[in-house]
Design a protein that fits this description.
- By secondary structure, the chain is α+β, with helices and mostly antiparallel strands.
- It is built from eight helices and six strands, in the order E-E-H-H-H-H-H-H-H-E-E-H-E-E.
- It folds into two domains: 7-23 and 230-340, Cation efflux protein, cytoplasmic domain (Alpha-Beta Plaits, 2-Layer Sandwich), CATH 3.30.70.1350; 33-226, Cation efflux protein transmembrane domain (Alpha-lytic protease prodomain-like, Up-down Bundle).
- It has a four-stranded mixed β-sheet, with helices on one face. A two-stranded antiparallel ribbon has the order 1-2.
Length: 341
């Protein structure tokens, strides 16, 4: 069995894999288990309180917010489960482990968010056609409690939102909830001051629009990663430029970059090197990709010949693998190899 980070050669081909984070240490994703436990407990308790008072106060805004909070409890549980899966070890049937679960969970979280929008809009339109008397004071007090709870929960995930799409999803849900609850507080004051009961469903529709905007980025990013897209912060063309400009590389083909999880990225590529490559070259290349492009797992295959003209085929138009790029001939100007140094 080959140890991680080691190189082996067979039939003139070299392979290398690395499993590191930005600091060069191997470790599982950050553990937000305590944050998930606290956030789930707080929000579940608040859902019960808000939903109950919503019925007593005859407020659709409170009931809508409670339904939204319930979807967030489900999202927190999903995100928590995804984090637990990501920390499980690899198996012969799941050689990358269960890290992909974090991406699927972030997609599920976004879908839950949009399901809540549909329910809120439907109920708001019904209430607009049939306005009902509501208790403005109860709306204001309960929603104010929601602002405090949702803000506190969002702060639990503030630290990890930039490094993990799964954690970002949990943070966005809670931050959106705090904003929504603040809107419900405003609605309660307005209803007490004016007696305009129609404000209740109108505020509910505004809540739905806030959720729609807040959740779009999460839905888009989750779908992109689910389809094995290149992570948003990695420029595939820049990676290709770097690999093509490495000393001794004649061309690059079959370059693939995707996300193994919401925190770990993977690259595989074929490098045509007539003079071959050695361990030092492979290790240095993987280290550069890790530090400069946040690619944590690199596998490179070195080939001494361009078999079947793989580097000179218009891969995109023929539905094959992207890309096939040859190094600029020296007669046309010396290539820039500074990126490989």
């Amino acid at each position: 069995m080959q140890a991680k980070g080691h190189t082996r050669s067979r039939n003139g081909c070299f392979f290398m894999t690395h499993n590191h984070d930005h600091n060069g240490h191997v470790h599982p994703p950050a553990n937000f288990g305590r944050a998930f436990a606290i956030g789930t407990a707080l929000n579940l308790a608040f859902v019960l309180v808000e939903g109950g008072y919503g019925f007593l106060a005859n407020s659709l805004a409170l009931i809508a917010d409670a339904g939204h909070n319930l979807s967030d409890v489900m999202s927190l549980l999903l995100a928590w489960g995804g984090m637990v899966l990501a920390r499980r070890g690899a198996t012969p049937r799941h050689t990358y482990g269960f890290k992909k679960g974090t991406i699927l969970v972030s997609l599920g979280s976004a879908l839950f968010l949009y399901a809540a929008i549909g329910i809120i809009l439907w109920e708001a339109l019904t209430r607009l056609r049939h306005p009902a008397e509501v208790n403005g004071l109860a709306i204001t007090v309960v929603a104010a409690i929601g602002v405090v709870i949702n803000t506190a929960t969002a702060l639990l995930f503030l630290k990890g939102r930039k490094d993990d799409l799964n954690i970002k999803g949990a943070f966005l849900h809670m931050a959106a909830d705090a904003t929504v609850s603040a809107g419900v507080v405003a609605a309660g004051f307005a209803i007490m001051a004016t007696g305009w009961n129609w404000l209740d469903p109108v505020i509910s529709m505004a809540i739905a629009l806030v959720i729609l905007v807040a959740g779009w980025g999460l839905l888009k990013d989750s779908l992109h990663l689910t389809m094995a897209g290149v992570p948003a912060h990695i420029e595939a063309e820049a990676v290709l430029d770097y690999l093509t400009g490495l000393p001794g590389v004649a061309c690059v083909h079959d370059l693939h970059i995707w996300a193994a999880s919401t925190t770990e990225n993977v690259l595989t590529a074929h490098l045509v090197m007539p003079a071959g490559g050695d361990d030092a070259f492979l290790h240095a290349t993987a280290e550069h990709l890790r530090h400069e492009f946040a690619i944590h797992h690199t596998t490179l295959q070195v080939e001494q010949e361009d078999m079947d003209g793989a580097c000179h085929v218009n891969n995109i138009n023929q539905g094959c693998c992207w890309p096939g790029r040859a190094r600029i001939p020296e007669s046309a100007g010396a290539p820039d190899t500074s990126k490989g140094e």
